[in-house]
Design goal:
homodimer; alpha+beta; Glutaredoxin; Glutathione S-transferase Yfyf (Class Pi), Chain A, domain 2; 2 domains; four-stranded mixed beta sheet; 11 helices; 4 strands; 7% strand; cytoplasm (chains A, B); transferase (chains A, B); glutathione transferase activity (chains A, B); Glutathione S-transferase (chains A, B); EC 2.5.1.18 (chains A, B)
Chain lengths: 233, 233
Protein backbone atom coordinates (compact mmCIF):
# COMPACT_ATOMS: atom_id res chain seq x y z
CA UNK A 1 0.00 0.00 0.00
CA UNK A 2 2.92 2.37 0.70
CA UNK A 3 3.23 5.15 3.22
CA UNK A 4 0.55 7.84 2.97
CA UNK A 5 0.68 11.32 4.49
CA UNK A 6 -1.75 14.23 4.27
CA UNK A 7 -0.46 17.74 4.85
CA UNK A 8 -3.50 19.76 5.86
CA UNK A 9 -5.00 22.49 8.04
CA UNK A 10 -8.06 22.26 10.26
CA UNK A 11 -9.67 25.43 8.92
CA UNK A 12 -9.20 24.52 5.24
CA UNK A 13 -12.31 23.04 3.70
CA UNK A 14 -10.16 21.63 0.89
CA UNK A 15 -8.42 19.20 3.24
CA UNK A 16 -11.31 17.35 4.84
CA UNK A 17 -12.35 15.81 1.50
CA UNK A 18 -8.98 14.09 1.24
CA UNK A 19 -9.30 12.52 4.68
CA UNK A 20 -12.86 11.39 3.89
CA UNK A 21 -11.74 9.71 0.67
CA UNK A 22 -8.89 7.86 2.38
CA UNK A 23 -11.11 6.76 5.26
CA UNK A 24 -13.89 5.54 2.94
CA UNK A 25 -11.32 3.46 1.07
CA UNK A 26 -9.77 2.16 4.29
CA UNK A 27 -6.34 3.68 3.58
CA UNK A 28 -4.29 4.46 6.67
CA UNK A 29 -2.47 7.78 6.66
CA UNK A 30 -0.49 10.13 8.82
CA UNK A 31 -1.96 13.61 9.17
CA UNK A 32 0.56 16.46 9.29
CA UNK A 33 -1.01 19.68 10.56
CA UNK A 34 0.27 22.76 8.78
CA UNK A 35 0.38 26.27 10.27
CA UNK A 36 -0.79 28.39 7.35
CA UNK A 37 0.58 31.62 8.86
CA UNK A 38 4.03 30.09 9.08
CA UNK A 39 4.36 27.54 6.30
CA UNK A 40 6.69 24.61 6.93
CA UNK A 41 9.72 23.66 4.78
CA UNK A 42 7.88 20.37 4.16
CA UNK A 43 4.91 22.13 2.52
CA UNK A 44 7.19 24.40 0.47
CA UNK A 45 9.16 21.35 -0.68
CA UNK A 46 6.09 19.35 -1.66
CA UNK A 47 4.00 22.15 -3.19
CA UNK A 48 6.52 24.74 -4.39
CA UNK A 49 4.17 26.13 -7.07
CA UNK A 50 1.09 26.99 -5.04
CA UNK A 51 2.41 26.55 -1.45
CA UNK A 52 -1.07 25.45 -0.39
CA UNK A 53 -2.70 22.60 1.49
CA UNK A 54 -3.74 19.87 1.01
CA UNK A 55 -0.82 17.82 -0.29
CA UNK A 56 -0.96 14.04 -0.45
CA UNK A 57 2.41 12.34 -0.08
CA UNK A 58 2.47 8.72 -1.18
CA UNK A 59 5.84 6.99 -0.89
CA UNK A 60 7.57 10.36 -1.20
CA UNK A 61 5.64 11.31 -4.34
CA UNK A 62 3.76 14.55 -3.66
CA UNK A 63 0.42 15.47 -5.21
CA UNK A 64 -1.09 18.94 -4.60
CA UNK A 65 -4.55 20.28 -5.50
CA UNK A 66 -7.52 18.59 -3.85
CA UNK A 67 -9.44 17.61 -7.00
CA UNK A 68 -6.27 16.12 -8.51
CA UNK A 69 -5.62 14.25 -5.25
CA UNK A 70 -9.16 12.82 -5.19
CA UNK A 71 -8.73 11.43 -8.73
CA UNK A 72 -5.34 9.97 -7.71
CA UNK A 73 -6.83 8.29 -4.65
CA UNK A 74 -9.68 6.85 -6.71
CA UNK A 75 -7.27 5.46 -9.33
CA UNK A 76 -4.78 4.08 -6.80
CA UNK A 77 -7.10 2.39 -4.31
CA UNK A 78 -9.97 0.69 -6.10
CA UNK A 79 -12.11 -0.18 -3.05
CA UNK A 80 -15.18 2.03 -2.69
CA UNK A 81 -15.05 3.78 -6.10
CA UNK A 82 -15.76 7.51 -5.91
CA UNK A 83 -16.30 8.35 -9.58
CA UNK A 84 -19.01 6.52 -11.56
CA UNK A 85 -17.93 4.12 -14.33
CA UNK A 86 -19.78 5.72 -17.24
CA UNK A 87 -17.67 8.39 -19.06
CA UNK A 88 -20.59 10.82 -19.39
CA UNK A 89 -21.53 10.51 -15.71
CA UNK A 90 -17.85 10.98 -14.81
CA UNK A 91 -17.76 14.11 -16.97
CA UNK A 92 -20.81 15.53 -15.22
CA UNK A 93 -19.28 14.87 -11.78
CA UNK A 94 -16.05 16.60 -12.87
CA UNK A 95 -18.03 19.52 -14.29
CA UNK A 96 -20.00 20.10 -11.07
CA UNK A 97 -16.94 19.55 -8.88
CA UNK A 98 -15.13 22.32 -10.76
CA UNK A 99 -18.22 24.50 -10.66
CA UNK A 100 -18.48 24.06 -6.89
CA UNK A 101 -14.80 24.78 -6.36
CA UNK A 102 -14.77 27.80 -8.66
CA UNK A 103 -17.86 29.24 -7.03
CA UNK A 104 -16.36 28.64 -3.66
CA UNK A 105 -13.07 30.40 -3.82
CA UNK A 106 -13.59 32.73 -6.75
CA UNK A 107 -11.13 35.47 -5.89
CA UNK A 108 -12.32 37.47 -8.90
CA UNK A 109 -15.59 38.22 -7.17
CA UNK A 110 -15.46 39.05 -3.52
CA UNK A 111 -19.18 38.48 -3.09
CA UNK A 112 -19.01 34.94 -4.45
CA UNK A 113 -16.31 33.74 -2.07
CA UNK A 114 -17.25 30.40 -0.44
CA UNK A 115 -20.42 30.23 -2.50
CA UNK A 116 -21.07 33.84 -1.53
CA UNK A 117 -21.12 32.92 2.16
CA UNK A 118 -17.82 34.49 3.19
CA UNK A 119 -18.55 37.47 0.98
CA UNK A 120 -21.89 37.82 2.74
CA UNK A 121 -20.13 37.69 6.13
CA UNK A 122 -17.83 40.52 5.14
CA UNK A 123 -20.24 42.73 3.23
CA UNK A 124 -23.04 44.93 4.46
CA UNK A 125 -26.31 46.32 3.11
CA UNK A 126 -26.94 45.88 -0.59
CA UNK A 127 -23.60 44.06 -1.15
CA UNK A 128 -24.56 41.51 1.50
CA UNK A 129 -27.93 40.92 -0.12
CA UNK A 130 -26.24 40.39 -3.49
CA UNK A 131 -23.82 37.85 -2.02
CA UNK A 132 -26.67 35.97 -0.31
CA UNK A 133 -28.60 35.96 -3.59
CA UNK A 134 -25.57 34.63 -5.48
CA UNK A 135 -25.06 31.90 -2.86
CA UNK A 136 -28.68 30.81 -3.17
CA UNK A 137 -28.47 30.64 -6.97
CA UNK A 138 -25.43 28.36 -6.73
CA UNK A 139 -27.09 26.19 -4.08
CA UNK A 140 -30.14 25.79 -6.35
CA UNK A 141 -27.96 24.61 -9.25
CA UNK A 142 -26.13 22.15 -6.99
CA UNK A 143 -29.38 20.87 -5.45
CA UNK A 144 -30.66 19.92 -8.91
CA UNK A 145 -27.84 17.40 -9.28
CA UNK A 146 -29.11 15.18 -6.46
CA UNK A 147 -32.00 14.20 -8.71
CA UNK A 148 -33.92 11.85 -6.44
CA UNK A 149 -30.86 10.07 -5.06
CA UNK A 150 -29.78 9.80 -1.44
CA UNK A 151 -26.31 11.17 -2.23
CA UNK A 152 -24.88 12.88 -5.30
CA UNK A 153 -23.07 9.56 -5.85
CA UNK A 154 -26.33 7.53 -5.65
CA UNK A 155 -26.99 5.13 -2.78
CA UNK A 156 -23.49 5.71 -1.43
CA UNK A 157 -21.23 8.71 -1.05
CA UNK A 158 -19.32 9.62 -4.24
CA UNK A 159 -16.79 12.12 -5.57
CA UNK A 160 -19.18 15.08 -5.68
CA UNK A 161 -20.44 14.44 -2.14
CA UNK A 162 -16.85 14.74 -0.92
CA UNK A 163 -16.27 17.94 -2.90
CA UNK A 164 -19.45 19.58 -1.63
CA UNK A 165 -19.43 18.05 1.85
CA UNK A 166 -17.73 21.11 3.43
CA UNK A 167 -21.13 22.81 3.25
CA UNK A 168 -22.46 20.68 6.09
CA UNK A 169 -20.17 22.48 8.52
CA UNK A 170 -18.57 25.56 6.94
CA UNK A 171 -21.82 26.95 5.55
CA UNK A 172 -23.47 26.62 8.97
CA UNK A 173 -20.46 28.38 10.53
CA UNK A 174 -20.60 31.22 7.99
CA UNK A 175 -24.33 31.55 8.62
CA UNK A 176 -23.64 32.02 12.31
CA UNK A 177 -20.72 34.42 11.81
CA UNK A 178 -22.59 36.45 9.16
CA UNK A 179 -26.02 36.38 10.84
CA UNK A 180 -27.92 34.99 7.85
CA UNK A 181 -29.55 31.81 6.56
CA UNK A 182 -28.38 30.21 3.32
CA UNK A 183 -29.15 26.49 3.40
CA UNK A 184 -32.76 27.11 4.39
CA UNK A 185 -34.66 23.78 4.72
CA UNK A 186 -37.82 25.42 3.30
CA UNK A 187 -36.03 26.77 0.24
CA UNK A 188 -33.65 23.81 -0.30
CA UNK A 189 -35.41 20.75 1.20
CA UNK A 190 -33.50 18.25 -0.96
CA UNK A 191 -30.05 19.70 -0.27
CA UNK A 192 -30.92 20.02 3.40
CA UNK A 193 -31.90 16.36 3.58
CA UNK A 194 -28.70 15.41 1.74
CA UNK A 195 -26.70 17.30 4.39
CA UNK A 196 -28.45 15.30 7.13
CA UNK A 197 -27.74 12.00 5.35
CA UNK A 198 -24.11 12.97 4.75
CA UNK A 199 -23.47 13.92 8.37
CA UNK A 200 -25.02 10.65 9.59
CA UNK A 201 -22.13 8.66 8.09
CA UNK A 202 -19.62 8.22 10.96
CA UNK A 203 -16.50 8.46 8.73
CA UNK A 204 -17.74 11.86 7.58
CA UNK A 205 -18.85 13.45 10.84
CA UNK A 206 -15.79 12.18 12.75
CA UNK A 207 -13.51 14.11 10.39
CA UNK A 208 -15.39 17.43 10.55
CA UNK A 209 -13.58 20.15 12.51
CA UNK A 210 -15.50 21.20 15.65
CA UNK A 211 -18.16 23.84 14.97
CA UNK A 212 -17.06 26.20 17.76
CA UNK A 213 -13.43 26.04 16.64
CA UNK A 214 -14.40 27.23 13.15
CA UNK A 215 -16.82 29.86 14.48
CA UNK A 216 -14.04 31.33 16.63
CA UNK A 217 -11.59 31.22 13.76
CA UNK A 218 -13.87 32.97 11.26
CA UNK A 219 -15.10 35.51 13.83
CA UNK A 220 -11.46 36.38 14.56
CA UNK A 221 -10.73 36.64 10.80
CA UNK A 222 -13.70 38.93 10.36
CA UNK A 223 -12.62 41.19 13.25
CA UNK A 224 -9.11 41.33 11.84
CA UNK A 225 -10.38 42.28 8.37
CA UNK A 226 -12.70 44.92 9.86
CA UNK A 227 -9.82 46.47 11.78
CA UNK A 228 -7.73 46.57 8.61
CA UNK A 229 -10.46 48.32 6.67
CA UNK A 230 -11.17 50.71 9.60
CA UNK A 231 -7.48 51.69 9.61
CA UNK A 232 -7.63 52.42 5.91
CA UNK A 233 -10.54 54.87 6.25
CA UNK B 1 -19.39 5.61 -32.39
CA UNK B 2 -22.38 7.98 -32.26
CA UNK B 3 -22.81 11.45 -33.64
CA UNK B 4 -20.21 13.96 -32.41
CA UNK B 5 -20.48 17.74 -32.61
CA UNK B 6 -18.14 20.46 -31.36
CA UNK B 7 -19.55 23.90 -30.68
CA UNK B 8 -16.58 26.25 -30.92
CA UNK B 9 -15.20 29.62 -31.97
CA UNK B 10 -12.11 30.28 -34.12
CA UNK B 11 -10.61 32.83 -31.74
CA UNK B 12 -11.03 30.67 -28.61
CA UNK B 13 -7.86 28.82 -27.67
CA UNK B 14 -9.94 26.46 -25.54
CA UNK B 15 -11.62 24.95 -28.61
CA UNK B 16 -8.67 23.89 -30.74
CA UNK B 17 -7.54 21.30 -28.16
CA UNK B 18 -10.88 19.49 -28.53
CA UNK B 19 -10.53 19.26 -32.31
CA UNK B 20 -6.92 18.04 -31.94
CA UNK B 21 -7.97 15.29 -29.53
CA UNK B 22 -10.77 14.07 -31.80
CA UNK B 23 -8.52 14.13 -34.88
CA UNK B 24 -5.69 12.27 -33.11
CA UNK B 25 -8.19 9.58 -32.12
CA UNK B 26 -9.72 9.45 -35.59
CA UNK B 27 -13.18 10.51 -34.40
CA UNK B 28 -15.28 12.26 -37.06
CA UNK B 29 -17.20 15.29 -35.87
CA UNK B 30 -19.29 18.18 -37.08
CA UNK B 31 -17.93 21.63 -36.17
CA UNK B 32 -20.54 24.24 -35.29
CA UNK B 33 -19.10 27.74 -35.33
CA UNK B 34 -20.46 29.96 -32.59
CA UNK B 35 -20.73 33.76 -32.76
CA UNK B 36 -19.60 34.76 -29.27
CA UNK B 37 -21.08 38.26 -29.57
CA UNK B 38 -24.48 36.78 -30.34
CA UNK B 39 -24.69 33.40 -28.63
CA UNK B 40 -26.93 30.81 -30.26
CA UNK B 41 -29.91 29.09 -28.60
CA UNK B 42 -27.97 25.84 -29.16
CA UNK B 43 -25.05 27.00 -27.00
CA UNK B 44 -27.39 28.32 -24.30
CA UNK B 45 -29.26 24.99 -24.32
CA UNK B 46 -26.12 22.89 -24.07
CA UNK B 47 -24.11 25.03 -21.63
CA UNK B 48 -26.70 26.95 -19.61
CA UNK B 49 -24.41 27.37 -16.60
CA UNK B 50 -21.36 29.01 -18.18
CA UNK B 51 -22.69 29.83 -21.70
CA UNK B 52 -19.16 29.28 -23.06
CA UNK B 53 -17.45 27.34 -25.82
CA UNK B 54 -16.32 24.65 -26.32
CA UNK B 55 -19.16 22.19 -25.85
CA UNK B 56 -18.89 18.59 -27.03
CA UNK B 57 -22.21 17.03 -27.99
CA UNK B 58 -22.13 13.24 -28.23
CA UNK B 59 -25.43 11.61 -29.14
CA UNK B 60 -27.29 14.59 -27.69
CA UNK B 61 -25.36 14.45 -24.40
CA UNK B 62 -23.61 17.78 -23.89
CA UNK B 63 -20.28 18.21 -22.08
CA UNK B 64 -18.91 21.72 -21.40
CA UNK B 65 -15.46 22.76 -20.09
CA UNK B 66 -12.47 21.84 -22.21
CA UNK B 67 -10.49 19.87 -19.58
CA UNK B 68 -13.60 17.86 -18.72
CA UNK B 69 -14.21 17.25 -22.43
CA UNK B 70 -10.62 16.03 -22.96
CA UNK B 71 -10.98 13.47 -20.16
CA UNK B 72 -14.33 12.35 -21.63
CA UNK B 73 -12.80 11.92 -25.09
CA UNK B 74 -9.89 9.93 -23.64
CA UNK B 75 -12.23 7.64 -21.70
CA UNK B 76 -14.69 7.15 -24.56
CA UNK B 77 -12.33 6.52 -27.49
CA UNK B 78 -9.40 4.39 -26.40
CA UNK B 79 -7.26 4.75 -29.56
CA UNK B 80 -4.26 7.04 -29.08
CA UNK B 81 -4.42 7.46 -25.27
CA UNK B 82 -3.85 11.03 -24.12
CA UNK B 83 -3.31 10.53 -20.39
CA UNK B 84 -0.53 8.20 -19.17
CA UNK B 85 -1.54 4.95 -17.43
CA UNK B 86 0.29 5.49 -14.14
CA UNK B 87 -1.89 7.27 -11.51
CA UNK B 88 0.96 9.52 -10.32
CA UNK B 89 1.86 10.59 -13.86
CA UNK B 90 -1.83 11.20 -14.56
CA UNK B 91 -2.02 13.38 -11.43
CA UNK B 92 0.98 15.43 -12.56
CA UNK B 93 -0.54 15.97 -16.01
CA UNK B 94 -3.82 17.08 -14.41
CA UNK B 95 -1.94 19.39 -12.04
CA UNK B 96 -0.01 21.13 -14.83
CA UNK B 97 -3.05 21.29 -17.09
CA UNK B 98 -4.94 23.14 -14.36
CA UNK B 99 -1.93 25.33 -13.67
CA UNK B 100 -1.68 26.25 -17.35
CA UNK B 101 -5.39 27.00 -17.62
CA UNK B 102 -5.52 29.01 -14.41
CA UNK B 103 -2.49 31.06 -15.40
CA UNK B 104 -4.02 31.60 -18.76
CA UNK B 105 -7.38 33.08 -18.00
CA UNK B 106 -6.94 34.23 -14.46
CA UNK B 107 -9.53 36.97 -14.31
CA UNK B 108 -8.41 37.88 -10.81
CA UNK B 109 -5.20 39.32 -12.16
CA UNK B 110 -5.39 41.34 -15.31
CA UNK B 111 -1.65 41.15 -15.85
CA UNK B 112 -1.64 37.35 -15.81
CA UNK B 113 -4.31 36.95 -18.49
CA UNK B 114 -3.23 34.41 -21.19
CA UNK B 115 -0.04 33.63 -19.27
CA UNK B 116 0.46 37.38 -18.91
CA UNK B 117 0.54 37.82 -22.68
CA UNK B 118 -2.82 39.53 -23.10
CA UNK B 119 -2.19 41.57 -19.98
CA UNK B 120 1.14 42.64 -21.49
CA UNK B 121 -0.62 43.65 -24.72
CA UNK B 122 -3.05 45.86 -22.82
CA UNK B 123 -0.71 47.34 -20.21
CA UNK B 124 2.00 49.94 -20.57
CA UNK B 125 5.21 50.87 -18.78
CA UNK B 126 5.85 49.17 -15.47
CA UNK B 127 2.62 47.18 -15.63
CA UNK B 128 3.62 45.75 -19.00
CA UNK B 129 7.03 44.73 -17.66
CA UNK B 130 5.38 43.01 -14.71
CA UNK B 131 3.07 41.05 -17.02
CA UNK B 132 5.99 40.01 -19.22
CA UNK B 133 7.91 38.89 -16.15
CA UNK B 134 4.94 36.89 -14.88
CA UNK B 135 4.55 35.24 -18.31
CA UNK B 136 8.22 34.23 -18.36
CA UNK B 137 8.04 32.73 -14.87
CA UNK B 138 5.09 30.59 -15.94
CA UNK B 139 6.83 29.55 -19.15
CA UNK B 140 9.90 28.47 -17.15
CA UNK B 141 7.77 26.26 -14.88
CA UNK B 142 6.04 24.70 -17.87
CA UNK B 143 9.31 24.15 -19.74
CA UNK B 144 10.64 22.08 -16.82
CA UNK B 145 7.91 19.51 -17.40
CA UNK B 146 9.25 18.46 -20.82
CA UNK B 147 12.16 16.85 -19.01
CA UNK B 148 14.18 15.52 -21.97
CA UNK B 149 11.18 14.24 -23.89
CA UNK B 150 10.06 15.23 -27.40
CA UNK B 151 6.57 16.11 -26.19
CA UNK B 152 5.11 16.57 -22.72
CA UNK B 153 3.42 13.22 -23.44
CA UNK B 154 6.73 11.51 -24.30
CA UNK B 155 7.45 10.30 -27.84
CA UNK B 156 3.93 11.20 -28.91
CA UNK B 157 1.57 14.07 -28.21
CA UNK B 158 -0.36 13.73 -24.94
CA UNK B 159 -2.96 15.50 -22.81
CA UNK B 160 -0.68 18.32 -21.64
CA UNK B 161 0.58 19.01 -25.18
CA UNK B 162 -3.02 19.61 -26.24
CA UNK B 163 -3.71 21.88 -23.26
CA UNK B 164 -0.59 23.98 -23.84
CA UNK B 165 -0.57 23.76 -27.65
CA UNK B 166 -2.38 27.12 -28.04
CA UNK B 167 0.96 28.76 -27.25
CA UNK B 168 2.34 27.82 -30.65
CA UNK B 169 0.00 30.28 -32.32
CA UNK B 170 -1.70 32.55 -29.77
CA UNK B 171 1.48 33.47 -27.96
CA UNK B 172 3.13 34.43 -31.24
CA UNK B 173 0.05 36.51 -32.12
CA UNK B 174 0.09 38.28 -28.74
CA UNK B 175 3.81 38.95 -29.18
CA UNK B 176 3.07 40.67 -32.48
CA UNK B 177 0.08 42.64 -31.19
CA UNK B 178 1.88 43.67 -27.98
CA UNK B 179 5.30 44.32 -29.55
CA UNK B 180 7.25 42.02 -27.19
CA UNK B 181 9.00 38.65 -27.10
CA UNK B 182 7.91 35.97 -24.65
CA UNK B 183 8.82 32.53 -26.04
CA UNK B 184 12.41 33.58 -26.74
CA UNK B 185 14.43 30.67 -28.21
CA UNK B 186 17.53 31.81 -26.25
CA UNK B 187 15.70 31.92 -22.94
CA UNK B 188 13.44 28.88 -23.51
CA UNK B 189 15.30 26.61 -25.95
CA UNK B 190 13.50 23.43 -24.82
CA UNK B 191 10.00 24.91 -24.98
CA UNK B 192 10.84 26.55 -28.30
CA UNK B 193 11.93 23.22 -29.77
CA UNK B 194 8.80 21.57 -28.41
CA UNK B 195 6.71 24.20 -30.22
CA UNK B 196 8.51 23.37 -33.50
CA UNK B 197 7.93 19.63 -32.98
CA UNK B 198 4.29 20.20 -32.10
CA UNK B 199 3.58 22.34 -35.16
CA UNK B 200 5.23 19.77 -37.46
CA UNK B 201 2.42 17.29 -36.76
CA UNK B 202 -0.09 17.79 -39.62
CA UNK B 203 -3.20 17.13 -37.49
CA UNK B 204 -2.06 19.96 -35.19
CA UNK B 205 -1.03 22.62 -37.69
CA UNK B 206 -4.05 22.01 -39.95
CA UNK B 207 -6.38 22.90 -37.07
CA UNK B 208 -4.61 26.12 -36.04
CA UNK B 209 -6.54 29.29 -36.93
CA UNK B 210 -4.66 31.44 -39.50
CA UNK B 211 -2.10 33.76 -37.89
CA UNK B 212 -3.31 36.90 -39.69
CA UNK B 213 -6.91 36.22 -38.73
CA UNK B 214 -5.97 36.14 -35.04
CA UNK B 215 -3.66 39.17 -35.33
CA UNK B 216 -6.50 41.20 -36.86
CA UNK B 217 -8.93 39.98 -34.22
CA UNK B 218 -6.70 40.83 -31.26
CA UNK B 219 -5.59 44.17 -32.75
CA UNK B 220 -9.25 45.10 -33.17
CA UNK B 221 -10.00 43.99 -29.58
CA UNK B 222 -7.12 46.09 -28.32
CA UNK B 223 -8.30 49.18 -30.25
CA UNK B 224 -11.80 48.69 -28.93
CA UNK B 225 -10.56 48.40 -25.31
CA UNK B 226 -8.36 51.49 -25.76
CA UNK B 227 -11.31 53.50 -27.07
CA UNK B 228 -13.40 52.40 -24.08
CA UNK B 229 -10.76 53.47 -21.60
CA UNK B 230 -10.16 56.76 -23.52
CA UNK B 231 -13.89 57.51 -23.24
CA UNK B 232 -13.78 56.91 -19.51
CA UNK B 233 -11.04 59.45 -18.94
Amino acid sequence: MGKVKVIGATTSLFCTRIEWALKLKGVEYEYIKEDLRNKSPLLLKYNPVHKKVPVLVHDDKAIPESLVILEYIDETWKEYPLLPQDPYERAMVRFWARFADDKRWSSSSFTQCVFGAWGACRAEGEEKEKAIQSAKESLALIENQINGKKFFGGEQIGFLDLVIGWMCRWLEVMEKVGGMKLLDPQRFPVLYEWAQNFMEVPVISECMPPREYLVNYFQASLSYLSSLSANKQ
